[in-house]
Amino acid sequence: MNDTWKNIIFRRSALWGGLLAAAAIASASWTADAYMLNLLFTIGIYVIACVGMNILVGYCGIVSIGHAGLMAAGAYTSAYASTHYGLNFWLSALAGIAVSLIIGSLIAIPTIKAGGVYLSMITIAFGVVVHEALIRWDGVTGGPLGISGIPKPKLGGYAFDLQSMYLLVAAVAIGALVLAYNIRRSAWGRSMIATKENEIAAASLGIRKFKPQYVGFAVSAVLAGLAGTLYAHTNSFISPDTYHFQASVQLVLIVILGGSGRLLGPIIGAVILVFLPEVLEMEKLRMALYGTIMFAVLYFLPKGIMGTMNDWLEARFGLKLRSQEADRSGGKADHGLLFANDRKKGGFPAAALRLEGINKSFGGLQALKEVSVEIKAGTIHSLVGPNGAGKTTLLNVISGLYTPEQGAMELHGASLSGSLSSVSGLGIARTFQHSRLFKELTVLENVMTGMTVKARTGLGAAFLRTPGQRRREAELQEKAHRLLDLIGYDGNRHMSASQLPYGHQRMVEIARALATEPSVLLLDEPAAGMTAAEIKQLEELLQRLVGYGLTIVLIEHHMDFVQRVSDTVTVLDFGKVIGTGNPAQLLSDPRVIQAYLGKEEVAADAER
Amino acid sequence: MSLILQLIISGLAVGCLYAVIALGYSLTYVVNGTLNMSQGQLVMVGGVLLFGFSEHAGLPFPLAFAASILLVALLNLVIERLAIRKFDKGANSIEWVLSTIAVGIIIQDVALYFNGPDEGVVPSPAGSGMLRIMDAGIYWKEFIFFPIVGVLLALLILFYQKSHWGLWLRATADNRTAVEMMGISSGRVVAVAYVLSGLLAGIGGALMSTNYAVSVDVGLPLGLKAISVAILAGVNNPKGIVGTGLLLGVAEVFIGQYISTAFREMFVYGIVILVLYWKPMGLFNVRKTVVKV
Lengths: 608, 293
Prior knowledge:
- The complex is a heterodimer of chains A (608) and B (293).
- In chain A, 58% of the residues lie in helices and 12% in strands.
- Chain A is elongated and about 90 Å long.
- Chain A contains 26 helices and 14 strands.
- Chain A has two domains: 41-317, Orthogonal Bundle (ABC transporter involved in vitamin B12 uptake, BtuC); 347-607, 3-Layer(aba) Sandwich (Rossmann fold), CATH 3.40.50.
- Chain A starts with a helix and ends with a helix.
- Chain B is mainly α and 293 residues long.
- In chain B, strand 1 and strand 2 form a beta hairpin.
- Chain B starts with a helix and ends in a 15-residue tail after the last helix.
- Chains A and B meet through helix 4, helix 5, helix 11 and helix 13 of A and helix 4, helix 10 and helix 12 of B.
């Protein structure tokens, strides 16, 4: 059975499975008794909140242990608005969501930059403060007694009961799942995962950490607020007890138990965590049990239930739980069209890059001393020199990762400066000495991530996956396929980048850098770890790229390779330029040989 | 005037506790970039154990004190082994945050199971007498915090400067790979850091229970407060942490007295958020990290 058939069968069964599940969810509202219905309703609430949590933890890599506080914000706002001002459910729910979003933003905006454990700590503190405020601010929150008599929603003449609330919550939960699915398959989702996995690599593609991570936080805040309001208006009574620290922990636990970053993870996690206490009927040590489950999941099932199952299915049947597109692009198009035409030779001043007197030091170590280089447009310019000569530092200065202490840089005649991400926008792309692919993304998605800045669509379109958005995504995929064709990658494009052999990782990283449509490409030891055949392939690729008008700056230790591909070579030693010229001439220069191998007298001295 | 002096001194006493607990975070964070999010619960365990040993089991105070802090240090060694070592995978890893939070939840619930929700104060060996300084009355049991914490810090500095473990700790903080290459197991150095951090938590908890009521749920808020101190100061700056801890203790007492006790916490965390925004690495952070690619 070939892959296409497998695919079609898989898609069919996924569709029918989904329809069946929806039918089962709906029919449960008539067959289940009130007790069961209540449990199912609770699962629905958890799914809504945890889908947002999953976007935050799984995609953005932010662990928030304060989302119960945001649920409380939604629930209390909505409850207060409807009991004090008689606002109808739909409006008060909107108010609840808005308040949750605003408070969420107040926490997230200042702390995303600090990230990691800092952000987690702030969210914990937030949850604790909210719980405290709910108890003490009794004029509004009703204190420890909470708010009761919250009206059920009405639509026209119809008043919702538990059964119809359950259906409403189920529908909202499915909507939330669709939203998460859409986000994951948009440039927004890819940038979230990219910034989570490798902030520097993401920045080198022009993706700044803040925007996607804030969007993730905001979505999770909205869903938490929504879940809070739905709960408040169904239960008709809320009190601070529902929103303590442990409740926030439970939300995270559901996500990692189900499998963080897995679409259906929250459902599995919520089902288990809602039914477990009912089955065990334990009063004491319940939190200890949750803590132990959390610990056990981290220890034995780091990918959660869905993640582990997915891996197992993949190994067993070679299937992916993600749907697949056609594996290859159609015809062999002219790859030159992938790059902007005005960047062909001659459209620019002769020098693509000009560095003038660059100095950079780390503490007492001066890594670059008065480095001046001119790199001609449309050529391959190699930087060589012994280890520690400052080659990578120079590349980091050009690409904006480091700021030089002194010196001026020009790109195509205009002054060049700025951070890694802003330099990327000016048309300089780079790869890294050690592969920095986004391992959770597929090969194809890695390349598509390179196009993010130029192709990021509006949030609304991405969330709803409008026809325009689908078309746009198809175009990006097509372009990514063509870039992969260009670099000569013929493996599976839908497998995750973590499974790639090293040589292929390097090539895919080049394709990803090319996806930013650069005019200058900086390559840091691309041939390291490649086989002879792969180096040959790389050589042809570089020649072709220069043919399309790109300028390439190359750091490399394979001297014969350097000699074959380079138009110009600059030799660095101890942070100084000791020569620039054509490769054959320069690499036989005694000064250069000396830099690599040491002086003869010195060597003789050492022997004595 | 005497009220202000009194407020300052009780603020400083609280601040001493914050400083001791926050140093516990710093000790491990500089060594391998992880910290125990259940540090607050460890402090609680220290206090509850001292109460149990001296009030229920009737052990003499010094013995009870030593036993409780040693048990907490041991507990932190176990935590390092189970919840840190496997999950210590660099700066981006969130697993150790989750695993130590899980540990904190377990500790708190188990403590609740054995100890119950009651709170208790251990009678301080310093007695309940008053010390009079310029009209201000200060309890001896509160005042005793200062010499104890002072001696503790001096011992800690001595340990860092003079012992080979101290040297290895400093070396591991600087460059873990180089330490490994010198034939020292950095895993063991990390374990020692965690034991030290546990000792500090235990001492903090035991000290606390001689002056303040300790129940099983004081751990989490206390841990959060202490981590705020560490963040405000910059996690890798011990001197800054001591200063910030004292300052925060005093500030809290004044806010509680003159503004509002209810909003005290909000105020503190509000400041932390602002500082994180303005200086994500803390106010007094000394070291700059160079990104290597």
